[in-house]
Specification:
alpha/beta; Aspartate Aminotransferase, domain 2; Aspartate Aminotransferase, domain 1; eight-stranded mixed beta sheet; 14 helices
Length: 374
């Protein structure tokens, strides 16, 4: 059984053919604009731009807030290296903060102690599409004059207190990687929630030029006027993604159905003390991005993974904490005590979950987990 299976909508071939027929394969044509508009209308952000990846969206964010060598960026260690790399590339030092064991998100109560005079921004990561405690986080940022960049790679169509993830901080970043709910193979988006960043974001995304202004007829020629890079996905990627956006609600509904089935079938094992399941705070509505279980410890997790793989079920662990890696030690430091980050990450197993997965497949996974515990 596959761990993940990307959605291939029926109409996507027609969309790709229309792009090829038009001869406009580079970015920022009809399908790119449709995707940007869909994101803006769905999230109510001030401006959304498709990017080549969530990584590049975060790199754009680092440029927009003016990260300089010596600045410090606060984030959890339980995340993908891209979250840190985007800021390290601008010369920043990463300050890792412990996570909450219930959500695997950054512990908002520990952030203030990690702030120094060098702190530039806080980067919460909404793990599994479950929102961080954003009210507390934004209050800290507001009182200290800090930026908040949401790594909402897994959070498309998830909400915190009825507000879409990615729109609560100054800037948000989405991922449309193959493993995400909505995909174009490799892709992402940056959400601009601070009006003053919109124009510069457009320039940074266009290699540091005012090319977009030129195409709108606002200038007679475009020039190089700022830092920037090539962050535009091709129109083929945008066409593939837009076909998925048209099915967005259906995809989310199906994934949540599978998520809830896992939760219901595995609950008896939690009552017997064998494992733990995800906990969703009452103020959060998630998108069914992933379902995980927690075993007793690393040794038991290894045995469980081997058991499931022998049965043809592709289950996986997740992030190795960044502060324990060679690059993490070089470019960052851990603030306070690692009480939960390493311990909880070593217990976690992600189960297969994708659009189109049958109830029978989910039931089979649960039977094998039960069998493991005898």
């Amino acid at each position: 059984m596959l761990f993940n299976k990307p959605v291939i909508p029926a109409n996507v071939i027609g969309y790709l053919k229309s792009v090829m027929k038009s001869g406009k394969l580079s970015g920022d044509h009809d399908f790119t604009r449709k995707c940007n508009l869909w994101l803006e209308r769905t999230t109510k952000t001030k401006k959304a731009f498709l990017t080549t990846s969530c990584t590049h969206a975060l790199e754009m964010a680092a440029l927009l807030i003016g990260v300089q060598p010596g600045d410090e960026i606060i984030m959890p260690s339980f995340t993908f290296p891209s979250t840190a790399n985007a800021f390290i590339l601008r010369g920043a030092k990463i300050v890792f903060v412990d996570i909450r064991p219930d959500t695997m998100n950054i512990d908002e109560t520990l952030i203030e102690a990690a702030v120094t005079r060098k702190t530039k921004a806080i980067v919460p990561v909404h793990y599994a599409g479950v929102g961080c405690e954003m009210d507390s986080l934004m209050k800290i940022a507001g009182s200290r004059g800090l930026f908040v960049i949401e790594d909402a790679a897994q959070g498309v169509l998830s909400t915190y207190k009825n507000r879409p993830l990615g729109t609560l901080g100054h800037i948000g970043a989405f991922s449309f990687h193959e493993t995400k709910n909505y995909t174009c193979g490799e892709g992402g988006a940056i959400l601009i929630n601070k009006k003053g960043f919109v124009r510069r974001a457009e320039i940074i995304r266009e290699k540091g030029t005012n090319r977009s202004s030129f195409f709108r007829g606002e200038v007679d020629k475009y020039r190089w006027i700022d830092l920037g890079s090539s962050y535009l996905p091709s129109e083929l990627n945008a066409a593939f993604l837009y076909a998925q956006f048209e099915l967005a609600k259906r995809i989310k509904t199906h994934r949540l159905r599978t998520w809830r089935l896992y939760d219901r079938l595995l609950e008896p094992l939690t009552k017997r003390g064998y494992l733990e399941l995800p906990k969703i705070p009452k103020e959060c509505r998630h998108n069914g991005h992933l379902f995980y279980i927690k075993t007793a410890n690393l040794a038991e997790r290894t045995k469980m993974l081997n058991h499931l793989n022998r049965k043809g079920i592709h289950a996986m662990f997740h992030y190795v904490p960044l502060h324990s890696a060679k690059a993490g030690r070089k470019f960052g430091r851990f603030s306070g005590i690692d009480r939960y980050t390493t311990r909880e990450s070593e217990r976690l197993i992600r189960l297969p979950l994708y659009y189109g997965m049958s109830a029978g497949d989910a039931e089979r996974v649960c039977r094998e987990i039960e069998a493991f515990y005898g």
